[in-house]
């Protein structure tokens, strides 16, 4: 009896196991079929948690995803922000922006493993796909051209530069202009549209003309330092009142180019020297003075006076500036280009003077008349008239022979006249000398033919001898009407 019960129990257990196996096997089959079915589904649809270009494309087909992008483009607006905070918009309708079918989304779909869909439930997958689009380029160009940043006054930027503040060069800050760089602007806006960016900051994208150098640029600081080295120099000319070349003058000769290269202007130095010479050069200049008789006279021309050697001084100034030296000096003068004093008249207190209208001459020493006499000067005809002007006595000679110009008809000098005392005024042959042959001196005798000289100042022999002993080569000689 017990044996039959055990046999029936074993038979029941075996039947239950078989049933359980069938149930489990059936469930696994259903799950496998479901898994495969879902995998097959996601072979044509994007997996859960899939994001493309920021859009949730979970469970969507390529065509459904394309619709998302089409709608996005219809609603697209690019906000353009200018440097003043202004904002303008370029809309999809403005430029006829449209989605263009491409293989980009299909490629993204192929990249995914559809049978890993369970994993996708727990992990997000983001992708960036290059979505192709089209728009009217001429319409976009028109919108860009109408932007306030383009239509406003285009003021170029200014770089930071060295600026003289009255004592030294300092950095003058840059100025940000309003001018846009059209090539950059066009490119950056086109890129923003192609990437469907919602906003573009023109300044951040460097669409404006930028200063080449700013206050922080090393090049500007170096230029200031170099220019200040020049400005350390000082040249003082010892005139009646000192004439000083210091930083205030030197700064005007310095400049920088667009690459911050410092230039010392040779032309600037030469112009300054020309003005310096114009003020202090007196050779040939007009002089107004009072004669020993109290008469006011004016004289022009001649070869006496100051004449600054500007070429030599140019080199001296350049050398001082290059070394940063402090120099006090007399200017260099051309040969013969010096005078007694810098004030006008510049012949000082010792000089010889001839008044042609009075036919009289004086020799003044230290402001006192040391000798005076009537004279006979050149006959007042063009070829014989005594030249007016301020001259320097050039040489003295005893027992000289004065030789006239060659007479074309004879081939011989027009005259040969021996004199005891010869004092040359001009290299053309005008001078003081004794004239023992003259019947008298002074008055209007000089106007008479045969009495008026060939241009020299004829003196009584004793007076010529006395003058010869007193006067020195280099003495100023003033001849006036």
Please provide a written account of the structure.
With 481 residues, the chain is of the alpha+beta class. Among the domains are: 161-214, no CATH class; 219-280 and 303-329, Ubiquitin-like (UB roll) (Roll), CATH 3.10.20; 351-480, L,D-transpeptidase catalytic domain-like (Beta Barrel), CATH 2.40.440. 32% of the residues lie in helices and 24% in strands. The strands form ten sheets. A five-stranded mixed sheet has the order 20-19-18-28-21, with helices on one face. Strands 22-25-26-27 form a four-stranded mixed sheet, covered by helices on one side. Strand 23 (406-407) and strand 24 form a beta hairpin. Helix 11 crosses helix 12 (310-323).
Offer a quick outline of the entry.
It contains 13 helices and 28 strands. It has 481 residues and is of the alpha+beta class.
Question: Which structural traits does this protein have?
Answer:
single chain; five-stranded mixed sheet; L,D-transpeptidase catalytic domain-like; Ubiquitin-like (UB roll); alpha+beta
């Amino acid at each position: 009896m017990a044996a039959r019960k055990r046999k029936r129990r074993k038979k029941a257990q075996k039947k239950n196991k078989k049933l359980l196996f069938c149930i489990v096997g059936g469930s696994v089959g259903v799950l496998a079929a479901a898994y495969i079915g879902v995998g097959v589904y996601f072979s044509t649809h994007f997996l859960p948690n899939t994001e493309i270009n920021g859009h949730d494309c979970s469970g969507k087909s390529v065509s459904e995803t394309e619709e998302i992008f089409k709608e996005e483009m219809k609603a697209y607006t690019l906000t353009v922000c200018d440097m003043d905070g202004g904002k303008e918009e370029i809309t999809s309708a403005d430029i006829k922006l449209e989605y263009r079918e491409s293989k980009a989304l299909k490629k993204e779909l192929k990249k995914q493993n559809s049978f890993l869909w369970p994993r996708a439930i727990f992990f997000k997958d983001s992708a960036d796909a290059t979505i192709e689009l089209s728009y009217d380029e001429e319409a976009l160009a028109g919108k860009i051209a109408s932007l306030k940043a383009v239509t406003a006054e285009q003021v170029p930027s200014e770089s930071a530069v060295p600026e003289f503040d009255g004592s030294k060069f300092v950095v003058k800050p840059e100025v940000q202009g309003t001018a846009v760089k059209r090539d950059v602007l066009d490119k950056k806006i086109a890129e923003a549209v192609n990437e469907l960016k919602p906003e573009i900051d023109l300044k951040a994208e460097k669409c404006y003309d930028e200063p080449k150098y700013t206050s922080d640029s090393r090049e500007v600081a170096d230029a200031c330092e170099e220019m200040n080295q020049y400005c350390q120099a000082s040249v003082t000319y010892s005139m009646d009142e000192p004439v000083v070349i210091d930083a205030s003058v030197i700064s005007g000769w310095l400049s920088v180019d667009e690459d911050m290269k410092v230039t010392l202007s040779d032309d600037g130095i030469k112009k300054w020297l020309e003005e310096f010479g114009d003020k202090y050069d007196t050779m040939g200049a007009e002089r107004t003075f009072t004669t020993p008789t109290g008469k006011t006279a004016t004289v022009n021309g001649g070869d006496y006076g100051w004449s600054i050697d500007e070429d030599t001084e140019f080199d001296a100034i350049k050398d001082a500036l290059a070394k940063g030296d402090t120099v006090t000096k007399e200017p260099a003068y051309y040969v013969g280009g010096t005078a007694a004093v810098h004030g006008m008249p510049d012949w000082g207190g010792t000089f010889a003077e001839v008044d042609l209208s009075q036919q009289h001459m004086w020799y003044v020493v230290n402001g006192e008349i040391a000798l005076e006499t009537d004279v006979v000067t050149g006959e007042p005809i063009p070829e014989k008239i005594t030249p007016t002007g301020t001259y320097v006595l050039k040489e003295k000679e005893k027992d000289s022979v004065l030789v006239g110009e060659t007479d074309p008809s004879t081939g011989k000098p027009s005259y040969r006249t021996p004199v005891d005392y010869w004092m040359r005024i001009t290299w053309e042959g005008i001078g003081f000398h004794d004239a023992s042959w003259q019947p008298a001196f002074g008055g209007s005798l000089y106007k008479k033919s045969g009495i008026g000289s060939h241009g020299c100042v004829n003196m009584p022999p004793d007076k010529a001898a006395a003058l010869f002993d007193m006067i020195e080569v280099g003495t100023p000689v003033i001849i006036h009407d």
